User: Fold these one by one.
Assistant:
Number 1:
Amino acid sequence: MTIKPGSKATRIDLFSISSPQMRTFHFTWFAFFLCFFGWFGIAPLMVYVREELHLTKEQIGNIIIASVAITVLARLVIGWLCDKIGPRISYSALLIIGSLPVMGIGLADSYISFLIARLAIGIIGASFVITQYHTSVMFAPNVVGTANATTAGWGNLGGGVTQMVMPILFGFFAAFGFTTALSWRFAMIVPGAALFLMGIAYYFGTQDTPGGNFSDIKESHPKFHGGKKNSLANFASAIADPRVWILFVAYAACFGIELTINNIAALYYVDRFELSPATAGLIAGLFGLMNIFARTLGGVFGDRFGSRMGLQGRVTWLAITLAGQGLFLVLFSQMNVLILAIATMILFSLFVQMAEGATFSVVPFVNRRAVGAVSGVVGAGGNAGAVAAGFLFRGGYSYQEALLMIGIAVVASAAVALLVRFTVEENSAVEEELNLLLRNESV
């Protein structure tokens, strides 16, 4: 049985690119992977930047905040844009535009110019919203959580890989005799160039929906939700739904903390355990590498809980993962022995990424006429959480104290997540859609 091109896929054929759904699956995760590579490529090299630009702890805190601050606004805008013009053009434009500050950060020669470049790079973090939107419109309710979690998780993997690869790229240029100042600058050209090329490939390699591009659908279906009036009305209905903002908080508590750890992990291990930048980068990279399977687990179990307990089951699973994440983060903050710190960091990473997958196993069902708007608002929550956490790291708290406070807040967010509720009608609509798709697949 093959996946029908014109309808949502009810399964994931991982090793296939013959259908538009599976081409989208693979294009989205790889594009997001490269975005993460560009977004956090400078993080493991901050030891060298700190020395060259004579940055203080407060200035580094400001840089951490800048790297995620603009993404809050960018994710809100890109969510609406996906509903309006479609994910294909939105992603292509974002990749190409975002590649420019990634390569351009090498021109920074002061704290202010570096801060501005780091702020501009943050726009590529909006790529997450398009990734989730594109898979949400391509896959059916029984697998959409798994599809969303896997594409996002494999994309987030870029956050771990960059911790390991960027010091190697730095060393490559240094081995050819370039100074430290030039080596970190040349290293950042690599992820920037990759983003630019991916933007071109995404435009020609994907389509907006299983049935075609938005421009084609609008002509044949005037009431299509990407229409001018409908897109604004749907966006308004999304932001008026309290459930969207509860999920905003939940995602702030998981993805927001992952972004924070990506920014500070290498410095944390250098300063706390007196490791070399290369060794610290390798250890910090373990945190991101859990994305190869952990976020997928969050989505898979979200779908399983959903099939057995309805939409409320997805919410229950989300609360469980957030509670586990918070508890292991509290433990990580108290570790004084390197091996124990690494072990608790890995367990914390497992739960933080499962919580992310669990969140976006719920998102596609909150407002099914405005998937982009909901994804944008909830996705912005992740960056809002990172901004809030960033203020703790620039203040008078030690890294250990800041992590402890964040862990306690994450546990509290698990209780907040349980406030999300779905109606009988919403559950019935999901079941009807799935049954229809399964019948069509069997024909």
Note: Confidence is low (pLDDT under 50) at residues 225-229.
Number 2:
Amino acid sequence: MSYRERELLYNDSNVGTIQATQIREDGHERTRLQKPVKLQPSWEENNLPDDELNFKNLTMDEASLQIHTPPDKYNLVYITFLIHGIGTLMPWNMFITAISYFTEYKLDAKYIGSEFEYLGNFMQIQTFCAQVPNVLFNWLNIFVPIGGDLTVRIVWSISINVIVFIVTIILAMVDSSTWPYTFFYLTLVSIVILNMATGIYQNTIYGMAAKLPPKYTGAIILGNNISGTFTTVVSILSNLVTKNARMAAIYYFITALFILLIGFDTYFALPLNRFYRHYELKDKKMQEQKKSSRTDAEKQPFLEIIKKASPQLFNVFFIFFVTLATFPAMQADIKRSDPNFFIEDKEIYKQVLCFLTFNVFAMIGSILPSWFIWPKKQYLWIPVTLRFLYIPLYLFCNYQPIGIQRILPVGINNDYLYWFLAATMAITSGYFSSVAMMYAPSTVPEHHASIAGMFAGAALITGIFSGILISFLWPWLVSHVGY
């Protein structure tokens, strides 16, 4: 029987296909063809120009993320970088806070039965072992692809920190009175390894934040200062609750371990966040375009990046140089001048006017750039350079280093004036360091922002190291210079 066929095309939305249907004269129909939909044939073409292939090899979700910038819902990404800011400095803050655990317990003559020859210089030795690898690996992390891409480096660095703290907690629990030198060298090795990992961690987290808007770099700085405040509060509370240096140290180290584990968990949550993935895809696309546009012989223009970012790199370096030249080395040895000052206890005076004041006001300073930013990047060096005046001002306070006979006259005898200096030094440190770190990535082309952020992180830790080194000069200065 002859019949006439008509083909009807319709879209089956359930299976995402197009079907061709034959309808015969007797009304019966049969499906003759079923084939996949091609929503955008141009996507599958291989001979189109690069600018027409923006969404090639991307899922629909990734393509949407490239077009639209989703909000940072509940500020989850901001909070994550804040936590990492806390985590980068928490290990070292805890080691400094627990200094009495080493000098008054584990290496004390009453515990080991004899005098330990390195006890008097333990803080200096610890600081040197910490800062040298920290500076070295901050810079090395920029030029050498240690451990793969940025995120992989963070996973490894946090993991190493966690292992070191587990070992440190075990050492705190065991009786080491018969092997003090072994304990001493194990502690130094732990500090070296810890700061090697921390150097990579700190530098890398600044590189990751540089891909995002500037306020996320500010979140890291804020986290750094929250870390110091938190550690100081823990120290003050522990002194009120227990006088046992061993138990206090265990609490410190477990707290640091807990913070690191939170940072580890939040890292794995980042790729699930649409806001973060938007900027990751944006950065990935820029890197691929940059790679395709240069020859294999071309490398990262490090010198060009340093040249363009150098004003802000100087600002970052000098801010932390002045800060660490005075805090805590000088401030911790400034004694009460007025016998009627409302804080009578010497230890509480130091904890409040030195550590708590610095960390609280530095934290406040880190928050301020989220409300306003001043001055413009080309003028930032002026207030940054003027902060150098804090060094001679502190020298003229009642600075009395232990075991040193001061001959330089004390010019500032007012405890409230010293407290004002301490507060303004801290707030300018927190504020200008945040502004400089936020400015640094914007001084170079967008595809170099991550490298510029890593250079800024390296300048930060170099400023810290240089400030600590020059702080050893102040006891000699006040004991040899007078008029």
Note: The two ends are 124 Å apart (CA to CA).
